[in-house]
Amino acid sequence: MAREAGVPLKIEDFDTISARTPIIADLKPGGRYMAVDVHRAGGIPVIAKHLLKAGLIDGSCATVSGRTIAEEAARVKETPGQDVVRPVSDPVKKTGGLVILKGNLAPEGCVIKVAGVARTEHRGPARVFDGEEDAMRAVTSRSIKAGDVVVIRYEGPKGGPGMREMLGVTGALVGEGLGDSVALLTDGRFSGATHGLMAGHVAPEAARGGPIAAVANGDTIVFDINKRRLDVELPDAEIQKRLAKWHAPEPRYKTGVFSKYAALVSSASEGAVTFVKS
Protein backbone atom coordinates (compact mmCIF):
# COMPACT_ATOMS: atom_id res chain seq x y z
CA MET A 1 0.00 0.00 0.00
CA ALA A 2 2.84 2.39 0.83
CA ARG A 3 4.51 1.74 -2.51
CA GLU A 4 1.29 2.43 -4.40
CA ALA A 5 0.78 5.66 -2.42
CA GLY A 6 4.39 6.76 -2.93
CA VAL A 7 5.14 6.73 0.79
CA PRO A 8 8.68 5.69 1.78
CA LEU A 9 8.46 2.64 4.04
CA LYS A 10 11.13 0.08 4.96
CA ILE A 11 10.76 -3.21 6.80
CA GLU A 12 12.87 -1.75 9.64
CA ASP A 13 10.23 0.95 10.20
CA PHE A 14 7.85 -1.64 11.62
CA ASP A 15 10.32 -2.49 14.37
CA THR A 16 10.89 1.21 15.16
CA ILE A 17 7.16 1.94 15.43
CA SER A 18 6.43 -1.23 17.37
CA ALA A 19 9.17 -0.40 19.91
CA ARG A 20 7.49 2.89 20.85
CA THR A 21 3.85 1.76 20.67
CA PRO A 22 2.37 -0.14 23.64
CA ILE A 23 -0.18 -2.94 23.41
CA ILE A 24 -3.34 -1.58 25.02
CA ALA A 25 -6.02 -3.98 23.70
CA ASP A 26 -6.12 -7.16 25.79
CA LEU A 27 -7.02 -9.52 22.94
CA LYS A 28 -6.55 -13.17 22.06
CA PRO A 29 -4.51 -15.17 21.19
CA GLY A 30 -2.19 -13.63 23.80
CA GLY A 31 -4.85 -11.88 25.89
CA ARG A 32 -8.28 -12.39 27.41
CA TYR A 33 -10.83 -10.86 25.06
CA MET A 34 -12.19 -11.21 21.52
CA ALA A 35 -12.71 -8.56 18.82
CA VAL A 36 -16.42 -8.37 19.65
CA ASP A 37 -15.46 -7.24 23.16
CA VAL A 38 -13.64 -4.25 21.64
CA HIS A 39 -16.89 -3.35 19.91
CA ARG A 40 -18.78 -3.59 23.20
CA ALA A 41 -16.16 -1.39 24.87
CA GLY A 42 -16.76 1.34 22.32
CA GLY A 43 -14.95 0.13 19.24
CA ILE A 44 -11.72 1.05 17.50
CA PRO A 45 -12.23 4.77 18.28
CA VAL A 46 -11.58 3.93 21.95
CA ILE A 47 -8.13 2.68 20.98
CA ALA A 48 -7.61 5.78 18.86
CA LYS A 49 -8.62 8.02 21.75
CA HIS A 50 -6.01 6.52 24.09
CA LEU A 51 -3.25 6.62 21.46
CA LEU A 52 -4.09 10.22 20.58
CA LYS A 53 -4.00 11.26 24.22
CA ALA A 54 -0.47 9.82 24.46
CA GLY A 55 0.64 11.53 21.23
CA LEU A 56 1.32 8.24 19.47
CA ILE A 57 -0.75 8.76 16.31
CA ASP A 58 -1.56 11.63 13.97
CA GLY A 59 -5.13 12.68 14.59
CA SER A 60 -5.35 14.66 11.35
CA CYS A 61 -5.27 11.52 9.18
CA ALA A 62 -8.47 10.76 7.29
CA THR A 63 -10.58 7.66 7.88
CA VAL A 64 -13.04 5.83 5.63
CA SER A 65 -15.92 7.78 7.21
CA GLY A 66 -14.57 11.04 5.80
CA ARG A 67 -13.76 12.29 9.28
CA THR A 68 -10.28 12.43 10.78
CA ILE A 69 -9.03 10.04 13.45
CA ALA A 70 -9.30 12.85 16.02
CA GLU A 71 -12.90 13.55 15.00
CA GLU A 72 -13.83 9.88 15.28
CA ALA A 73 -12.14 9.63 18.69
CA ALA A 74 -14.06 12.68 19.91
CA ARG A 75 -17.37 10.99 19.03
CA VAL A 76 -16.60 7.76 20.90
CA LYS A 77 -18.89 6.42 23.63
CA GLU A 78 -16.60 4.35 25.82
CA THR A 79 -18.40 1.78 27.98
CA PRO A 80 -17.91 2.66 31.66
CA GLY A 81 -15.70 0.23 33.52
CA GLN A 82 -14.50 -1.63 30.40
CA ASP A 83 -11.04 -3.20 30.73
CA VAL A 84 -10.64 -4.53 27.20
CA VAL A 85 -8.79 -1.39 26.08
CA ARG A 86 -6.42 -0.07 28.70
CA PRO A 87 -4.85 3.38 29.08
CA VAL A 88 -1.35 3.88 27.71
CA SER A 89 -0.16 4.48 31.29
CA ASP A 90 -1.18 0.90 32.18
CA PRO A 91 -0.67 -1.13 28.99
CA VAL A 92 -0.87 -4.87 28.49
CA LYS A 93 2.73 -4.59 27.27
CA LYS A 94 4.96 -1.52 26.97
CA THR A 95 6.08 -2.32 23.43
CA GLY A 96 4.27 -3.50 20.32
CA GLY A 97 3.64 -6.94 18.97
CA LEU A 98 6.05 -7.07 16.02
CA VAL A 99 9.83 -7.25 15.79
CA ILE A 100 12.08 -7.47 12.74
CA LEU A 101 15.00 -9.88 12.89
CA LYS A 102 17.96 -10.06 10.55
CA GLY A 103 20.94 -12.40 10.37
CA ASN A 104 22.59 -14.88 8.05
CA LEU A 105 19.23 -16.61 7.53
CA ALA A 106 17.32 -13.40 6.83
CA PRO A 107 19.65 -10.75 5.38
CA GLU A 108 16.65 -8.68 4.24
CA GLY A 109 14.71 -9.35 7.44
CA CYS A 110 11.87 -11.43 8.82
CA VAL A 111 8.89 -10.75 11.06
CA ILE A 112 8.08 -12.20 14.49
CA LYS A 113 4.85 -11.58 16.38
CA VAL A 114 5.92 -11.31 20.02
CA ALA A 115 2.56 -10.47 21.61
CA GLY A 116 1.80 -13.36 23.94
CA VAL A 117 5.23 -14.98 23.42
CA ALA A 118 7.34 -15.36 26.57
CA ARG A 119 10.46 -16.81 24.93
CA THR A 120 13.07 -14.41 23.59
CA GLU A 121 15.61 -17.08 22.58
CA HIS A 122 15.56 -20.51 21.01
CA ARG A 123 18.35 -22.76 19.75
CA GLY A 124 17.61 -26.07 18.09
CA PRO A 125 18.01 -28.44 15.15
CA ALA A 126 16.33 -27.65 11.85
CA ARG A 127 13.54 -29.83 10.49
CA VAL A 128 13.31 -28.73 6.88
CA PHE A 129 10.23 -28.96 4.63
CA ASP A 130 9.84 -27.71 1.06
CA GLY A 131 6.18 -26.80 1.48
CA GLU A 132 3.38 -26.48 4.01
CA GLU A 133 1.81 -29.87 3.35
CA ASP A 134 4.99 -31.81 4.15
CA ALA A 135 5.40 -29.88 7.40
CA MET A 136 1.79 -30.56 8.38
CA ARG A 137 2.24 -34.28 7.80
CA ALA A 138 5.33 -34.28 10.03
CA VAL A 139 3.49 -32.49 12.82
CA THR A 140 0.38 -34.66 12.70
CA SER A 141 2.48 -37.85 12.57
CA ARG A 142 4.22 -36.60 15.73
CA SER A 143 7.70 -36.65 14.24
CA ILE A 144 8.42 -33.10 15.46
CA LYS A 145 9.97 -33.04 18.92
CA ALA A 146 10.39 -30.42 21.62
CA GLY A 147 13.32 -28.14 20.83
CA ASP A 148 13.07 -28.54 17.04
CA VAL A 149 12.99 -25.61 14.62
CA VAL A 150 10.50 -26.27 11.82
CA VAL A 151 11.64 -24.68 8.54
CA ILE A 152 9.00 -24.27 5.83
CA ARG A 153 10.37 -22.87 2.58
CA TYR A 154 9.33 -22.23 -1.03
CA GLU A 155 6.15 -20.57 0.29
CA GLY A 156 7.22 -16.95 -0.32
CA PRO A 157 5.80 -14.45 -2.85
CA LYS A 158 7.59 -16.12 -5.77
CA GLY A 159 7.76 -19.69 -4.50
CA GLY A 160 4.18 -20.05 -3.23
CA PRO A 161 3.39 -18.19 -5.29
CA GLY A 162 1.70 -15.59 -3.14
CA MET A 163 2.81 -16.20 0.46
CA ARG A 164 0.35 -18.74 1.79
CA GLU A 165 -0.60 -18.41 5.44
CA MET A 166 1.07 -21.01 7.71
CA LEU A 167 -1.61 -20.84 10.42
CA GLY A 168 -2.54 -24.51 9.97
CA VAL A 169 0.93 -25.78 10.87
CA THR A 170 1.32 -23.43 13.83
CA GLY A 171 -2.13 -24.45 15.08
CA ALA A 172 -1.20 -28.13 14.74
CA LEU A 173 1.99 -27.56 16.77
CA VAL A 174 -0.06 -26.01 19.55
CA GLY A 175 -2.53 -28.91 19.31
CA GLU A 176 0.34 -31.37 19.79
CA GLY A 177 1.46 -29.51 22.91
CA LEU A 178 4.58 -28.11 21.22
CA GLY A 179 3.60 -24.45 21.03
CA ASP A 180 5.95 -23.42 23.83
CA SER A 181 8.88 -25.70 22.99
CA VAL A 182 9.22 -25.58 19.18
CA ALA A 183 10.14 -22.64 16.94
CA LEU A 184 9.22 -22.19 13.30
CA LEU A 185 10.52 -20.09 10.45
CA THR A 186 9.19 -19.70 6.93
CA ASP A 187 9.35 -17.51 3.87
CA GLY A 188 5.54 -17.73 3.92
CA ARG A 189 3.34 -15.59 6.13
CA PHE A 190 1.28 -15.68 9.34
CA SER A 191 -1.95 -14.18 10.57
CA GLY A 192 -2.67 -12.43 13.86
CA ALA A 193 -3.96 -15.71 15.30
CA THR A 194 -0.52 -17.35 15.20
CA HIS A 195 0.76 -18.52 18.57
CA GLY A 196 4.33 -19.30 19.63
CA LEU A 197 7.83 -18.37 18.47
CA MET A 198 7.31 -18.12 14.73
CA ALA A 199 9.34 -16.11 12.18
CA GLY A 200 7.59 -15.37 8.91
CA HIS A 201 8.35 -13.38 5.75
CA VAL A 202 11.98 -14.62 5.81
CA ALA A 203 13.75 -12.76 3.00
CA PRO A 204 15.22 -13.36 0.53
CA GLU A 205 12.92 -16.34 0.06
CA ALA A 206 14.09 -19.82 -0.93
CA ALA A 207 12.75 -19.52 -4.49
CA ARG A 208 15.16 -16.61 -5.01
CA GLY A 209 18.10 -18.56 -3.63
CA GLY A 210 17.98 -16.93 -0.21
CA PRO A 211 19.98 -18.51 2.64
CA ILE A 212 16.90 -20.37 3.84
CA ALA A 213 17.35 -22.53 0.72
CA ALA A 214 20.73 -23.71 2.07
CA VAL A 215 19.43 -25.01 5.42
CA ALA A 216 19.67 -28.78 5.90
CA ASN A 217 18.11 -31.08 8.46
CA GLY A 218 20.07 -30.98 11.71
CA ASP A 219 21.61 -27.53 11.19
CA THR A 220 21.43 -25.50 14.40
CA ILE A 221 19.22 -22.41 14.16
CA VAL A 222 19.25 -19.61 16.71
CA PHE A 223 16.49 -17.08 17.43
CA ASP A 224 17.54 -14.08 19.55
CA ILE A 225 14.77 -11.51 19.76
CA ASN A 226 16.64 -9.12 22.06
CA LYS A 227 19.53 -8.93 19.59
CA ARG A 228 17.10 -8.97 16.63
CA ARG A 229 18.93 -11.96 15.09
CA LEU A 230 17.93 -15.09 13.19
CA ASP A 231 20.94 -17.23 12.30
CA VAL A 232 22.00 -20.70 11.30
CA GLU A 233 25.24 -21.80 12.94
CA LEU A 234 27.18 -22.25 9.72
CA PRO A 235 30.22 -20.37 8.37
CA ASP A 236 29.42 -17.96 5.57
CA ALA A 237 31.65 -20.01 3.29
CA GLU A 238 29.55 -23.13 3.90
CA ILE A 239 26.31 -21.28 3.17
CA GLN A 240 27.74 -19.94 -0.07
CA LYS A 241 29.08 -23.40 -1.01
CA ARG A 242 25.62 -24.89 -0.59
CA LEU A 243 23.93 -22.09 -2.50
CA ALA A 244 26.41 -22.51 -5.36
CA LYS A 245 25.02 -26.04 -5.80
CA TRP A 246 21.40 -24.91 -5.42
CA HIS A 247 19.00 -25.10 -8.35
CA ALA A 248 15.63 -23.38 -8.39
CA PRO A 249 12.77 -25.90 -8.30
CA GLU A 250 10.28 -26.20 -11.09
CA PRO A 251 7.65 -23.46 -10.73
CA ARG A 252 4.30 -24.63 -9.45
CA TYR A 253 2.57 -22.70 -12.26
CA LYS A 254 4.14 -22.42 -15.71
CA THR A 255 1.31 -20.54 -17.41
CA GLY A 256 -1.47 -18.18 -16.45
CA VAL A 257 -1.80 -15.39 -13.92
CA PHE A 258 0.11 -17.18 -11.14
CA SER A 259 3.05 -17.72 -13.47
CA LYS A 260 3.05 -14.03 -14.37
CA TYR A 261 2.79 -13.03 -10.72
CA ALA A 262 5.74 -15.22 -9.71
CA ALA A 263 7.83 -13.73 -12.53
CA LEU A 264 7.09 -10.12 -11.53
CA VAL A 265 6.79 -10.15 -7.73
CA SER A 266 9.45 -8.56 -5.51
CA SER A 267 10.79 -9.71 -2.15
CA ALA A 268 8.56 -9.76 0.92
CA SER A 269 10.94 -7.22 2.46
CA GLU A 270 9.79 -4.78 -0.23
CA GLY A 271 6.10 -5.53 0.28
CA ALA A 272 5.83 -8.29 -2.35
CA VAL A 273 4.86 -5.66 -4.92
CA THR A 274 4.88 -6.51 -8.60
CA PHE A 275 6.96 -4.61 -11.12
CA VAL A 276 7.70 -4.74 -14.81
CA LYS A 277 11.23 -5.88 -15.57
CA SER A 278 13.11 -3.74 -18.06
List the helices and strands and how they pair.
Layout: H1 2-5, H2 11-20, H3 35-41, H4 44-53, H5 69-74, E1 98-103, E2 106-113, E3 121-129, H6 132-140, E4 149-152, H7 167-175, E5 183-186, E6 197-203, E7 220-224, E8 229-232, H8 236-244, H9 256-264
Parallel strand pairs: 3-4, 4-5, 5-6
Antiparallel strand pairs: 1-2, 2-6, 3-7, 7-8
Describe what this molecule looks like in 3D.
With about 280 residues, the protein is of the alpha/beta class. It contains 9 helices and 8 strands. The protein has helices spanning about 1-5, 10-20, 35-40, 45-55, 70-75, 130-140, 165-175, 235-245, 255-265; strands at about 100-105, 105-115, 120-130, 150, 185, 195-205, 220-225, 230. It has an 8-stranded mixed beta sheet with strand order 1-2-6-5-4-3-7-8. Strand 1 and strand 2 form a beta hairpin. The longest helix has 10 residues, at about 10-20.
Q: State the helix count.
A: 9
Structural class assignment: alpha/beta
Taking all Cα atoms into account, the compactness measure Rg is 20 Å
How many strands, which pairing sense, and closed or not: the largest β-sheet?
A: 8 strands, mixed
Q: Shape, please?
A: globular
Stretches where pLDDT is under 50 for at least 5 consecutive residues are none
Strand order of the largest sheet: 1-2-6-5-4-3-7-8
Order of helices and strands: HHHHHEEEHEHEEEEHH
Distance between the termini: 23 Å
Mean pLDDT: 93
Q: Helix share of residues?
A: 25-40%
Give the tally of β-strands.
Answer: 8
The portion of residues forming beta strands comes to 15-25%
